[in-house]
Specification:
The chain is an alpha/beta fold and 630 residues long. Helices cover 50% and strands 12% of the residues.
Length: 630
């Protein structure tokens, strides 16, 4: 059973006693629990621990001064389990926490729920698909793809911690022009890889694009794609094998970053299963799409963008009146395939796929399944929510996708599609154009593989020369973990919609807003409690209203923080919390001796133990593994 955050227990108690005071002092105000809850804030420490501005709301209906109302309410507020004294200040109602009672509740909750404290029942078992990173199967992951993958992984972790049933899905576009170009290169330039397969194929793809200036080669590639789309041709089968080999190499990268999936869905299998035909039969019958008869779009299946504008108020069309979904030659556009794909996701189309095993065991011990011509039926799709991690350049197409469901009369589905949009990624001094090979960098290779290798190399130098790191014999293992943690934290601490320029100097600091700082704080806490017996506390007499209480308050709000981060799909809420917790722990440790704490030792050990536990569980939300000894 998932328990509520201690911080929410505190808030609910404060709301309850405030509501009682309001019902007695101002019975006709009509103020409810939700309105009081929204009025809560954290005052300056000298003014208390929890505050409400509800007096200002009541003042509007009572036509009285908020200060007078606050004073009247404060005098009527009774003490409770967690709340002691209450006072009015400039129209606000401020209460102080009973530090002993609240600390006992917070530390006891963490101890009882060890391993599952930073959790929530928010999702109530709702099934959701998180689609990420959907990289074309003809190149290695560059760091833009890595941002997508890390966002998808951490959002999945957060949603699972909030009791959602998460299906981690990777869509593989193996029928796109890029794969056709790579297949042409494989058959006409070289079929002998001399390095990691995805890197080799990506470099060859860049070479093919240079040759496409030759119109004869461009025509050969176009015909190759047509034969691939037939499904049963030699080209289709060989291109699929080529793409599978590339995806296996990409998943070596995924494994290095501890990013795992449940299922791969291949575009070629979508075409083979005629998912598109079934979807557009429904769309045509419902009048959402139509075959155009105008000269410009003759025989194309289109949707009128004026209809889209009627249901999507913030929709802006880039100089087109209609959106072509199926071209006159019968080929589908990206958005058409996405509509059919989402109809499958939400169970509007019966699952036509068979599933095989693509990888027997990933790093998490679970197999990776794949849609396949041969295999067994499984229980994928049929979800209530879909989170699509796609860069912000796709906002227009994602709006069309959501609007199509609105036109179908399925607002519930439209509202349940979340486009997690993210900005571009650069490394200091680099660019990332895939077609031109910018991911190879200038003097450096900016693939996700090389980013990790170079970061690990830099961390080894730091570990070997840092006085903070005493565990020199395990320098390589520590460097690997810290490198991954540093990269993940740096990518996830920025709000998704903002651009990132990755800096090694910034990411690898062992103090400040970084992953290594959080990992070091965990190792430091673990070292303190090593060999110490930390049991369930009975004596809280040494709890004070100093840095120990500030730490308790932060520990108590971890599950509430998780709910907020999950609801808003923002990993930076988690990173901000981690930095605040690490900073509070450092202040506590510096001002309040632990092992030499005398009678307070038992309590302070419990605070250190609880901090280590919350740090560990919260870092796991970001996919960052902890290191006990540094």
């Amino acid at each position: 059973m998932v328990m509520q955050a201690p911080s929410m227990d505190l808030k609910e108690e404060f709301v309850s006693i405030l509501k009682e005071a309001i019902s007695k002092g101002f019975p006709g105000s009509g103020i409810g629990d939700e309105e009081i809850l929204l009025s809560l804030s954290v005052p300056k420490p000298e003014n208390g621990d929890i505050s409400s501005s509800i007096s200002f709301r009541i003042a509007k209906t009572e036509k009285k001064n908020p200060k007078e109302i606050a004073e009247r309410l404060a005098s009527g507020v009774k003490g409770a389990r967690f709340i002691t004294k209450t006072a009015a200040l400039n129209g606000y109602i401020n209460s102080s926490i009973d530090e002993k009672e609240y600390a006992a509740h917070v530390l006891g909750s963490i101890k009882k729920q060890k391993g599952s404290y930073v959790r929530s029942g928010l999702g109530k078992g709702t099934k959701v698909i998180v689609e990420s990173p959907s990289v074309n199967p003809n190149k290695p992951w560059h760091i833009g793809h890595l941002r997508n993958a890390l966002l998808g992984d951490s959002i999945s972790n957060m949603m699972e911690a909030c009791s959602y049933k998460v299906e981690r899905e990777d869509y593989i576009d193996d029928l796109g022009m890029q794969v056709a170009e790579s297949y042409w290169g494989y058959t006409n330039i070289s079929d002998k890889p001399d390095k990691k397969f995805d890197t080799w194929l990506g470099e060859q793809y860049v070479e093919v694009n240079k040759r496409l200036q030759d119109k004869a080669i461009e025509e050969q590639v176009r015909k190759t794609l047509e034969r691939m789309e037939e499904g049963s041709s030699k080209e289709a089968k060989e291109a699929r094998k080529l793409a599978e080999e590339c995806v296996r190499a990409q998943y070596q990268t995924a494994g290095d970053y501890s990013v795992y999936h449940d299922v791969l869905v291949w575009e070629s299998d979508i075409v083979r299963a005629k998912l598109l035909d079934k979807a557009f039969s429904i769309l045509t019958k419902s009048g959402v799409v139509k075959k155009d008869t105008s000269e410009k779009y003759k025989d194309c299946i289109i949707v009128d963008l004026e209809r889209i504008k009627q249901v999507a108020k913030d929709f802006e069309s880039p100089n087109e009146d209609v959106k072509v979904l199926i071209r006159s030659n019968g080929t589908a556009t990206y958005v058409a395939k996405d509509i059919a794909f989402h109809m499958w996701k939400f169970g509007l189309l019966e699952d036509p796929f068979s599933y095989g095993t693509f990888m027997e065991g990933q790093g998490n011990g679970k197999p990776l399944y794949t849609t396949s011509e041969f295999g067994k039926r499984m229980g994928f799709a049929g979800v209530s929510m879909a989170v699509n991690v796609i860069d912000n350049r796709q906002r227009y197409l994602q709006l069309i996708l959501k609007s199509m469901f609105m036109l179908m009369g399925r607002k519930d589905i439209s509202d349940s599609i979340m486009h997690l949009s993210y900005g571009k990624v650069d490394v200091e001094g680099g660019t990332l154009s895939g077609r031109e090979g910018g991911w190879m960098g200038s003097g450096r290779n900016y693939t996700a593989d090389s980013l990790l290798a170079e970061t690990e190399k830099k961390v080894i130098e730091i570990v070997e020369n840092s006085e903070k790191i005493s565990n020199k014999e395990n320098a390589k293992a520590i460097a690997r973990a810290v490198a991954i943690g540093a990269i993940k934290f740096e990518f996830l601490k920025i709000a998704p919609e903002k651009n990132i320029t990755f800096s090694w100097e910034r990411a690898l600091k062992f103090e400040g807003n970084t992953g290594p700082y959080c990992m070091y704080t965990y190792a430091r806490a673990s070292k303190i409690i090593e060999g110490q017996e930390v049991g369930m506390l009975k004596d809280m007499d040494h709890m004070s209203r100093s840095d120990d209480l500030e730490l308790v308050k932060l520990l108590g709000m971890a599950p509430e923080m998780l709910e907020k981060a999950c609801s808003e799909y923002r990993t930076n809420i988690v990173t901000d919390y981690l930095i605040e917790l690490c900073t509070a722990f450092s202040r506590f440790y510096e001002t309040m001796p632990v092992l030499k704490g005398g009678g307070a030792k038992e309590l302070r050990l419990a605070l250190v133990d609880s901090t280590a536990e919350v740090l560990k569980e919260t870092l796991m939300l970001l996919g960052i593994a902890v290191v006990k000894s540094m």
